[in-house]
Amino acid sequence: MSDRGNGRLLTARGLRAGYGGIAVLHGVTLHVDRGETVTVLGRNGAGKTTLMSTLVGSISPSAGRIEVCERDMTGRSPSAISRAGMACVRQDQPLFGELTVGENLNLAGLSAGADRVLGLFPGVFDGRASQRASTLSGGEQKMLAAARCLCSAKPLLVLDEPTEGLQPANVALLLQYLTAARDRGCGVLLIEQHVDAALSVSDRYCVLEKGEIVAEGMADSTAAKRVARLMAVSGVRD
Ligand code: ATP
To answer: How far is Cα of residue 152 from the mean position of the Cα atoms in its chain?
Structure first.
């Protein structure tokens, strides 16, 4: 791993959020520094996507604070949060479906040319820059959204289950690119259900259960066992 800078790229402190009167997050605190990958793991319904939606600005928190690149972005819009330094892959809006593959890339403020981005997954997007994004398969749309995020010029990358629905070779490539982004100094927040794959590319992990962080630690060789135990037994704390 490369040297880490001191920059804190993401801080979430005491986040509470939900849907209408339904509270889902009950005071979530986490952070991501420059040059590290942090994975949020949790069972179905734990609140991972709600956390993601809150961090990217789709849901306004009822309490707590969000800082991106040390700027207070609490309650700000997704575009303001993006301008502050966050690139993301959201489950609810991976791409602009009416635009072409190339147009989706041109809108993203990339650090690399479209050809390089499309080449991240060899053979998948050959000759398809003018294809409408909504006509790509589900897996292809996820790969394009991930490639766009990985090649963004932003320092903070936030990805909600980017490996879901990808074939194993493309999962391996995606994880390799996430590691490369971390090593060039990006901070990565990964939301995942695949414990082993996520921990293999992470520096730290947090386990979310019923809207609360119930465990966190270093993603070392014993982490997978600890996390598997927590995720198998509801209500257990580390
Ligand atoms: P999964 O791994 O299954 O995708 P998750 O950890 O991402 O789950 P969330 O999607 O954040 O979990 O859901 C957390 C809780 O919030 C669930 O109980 C879910 O029913 C509820 N929830 C999610 N979206 C809404 C919504 N739009 N309106 C009301 N409740 C919602």
So the answer is: 13
All structural domains of the chain with their residue ranges: 8-85+154-234
* Predicted confidence (pLDDT) at residue 93 exceeds the cutoff of 70: no
Q: What is the DSSP letter of 228?
A: H
pLDDT tens-place string over residues 38-85: 999 998 999 999 999 999 999 999 999 999 999 999 999 999 999 999
For ligand 1, mutation pick of 25, 39, 49 (most atoms within 8 Å of CB): 49
Q: Using CA atoms, how far apart are residues 51 and 55, in angstroms rounded to an integer?
A: 6
Question: Exposure pattern of 161-194 as b/e (b: 16+ CB <10 Å)?
Answer: bbbeebeeebbebbbebbbebbeebbbbbbbbbe
For residue 26, report the distance from its CA to the centre of ligand 1, in Å: 14
Cα(49)–Cα(33) distance, integer angstroms = 21
Distance CA 21, CA 17 (A): 10
58 lines ligand 1 (CB under 6 A): no
Instruction: Out of 3.20.20.190, 3.40.50.300, 3.30.70.870, 3.40.50.720, select the CATH number for domain 8-85+154-234.
Output: 3.40.50.300
- pTM score over 0.85: yes
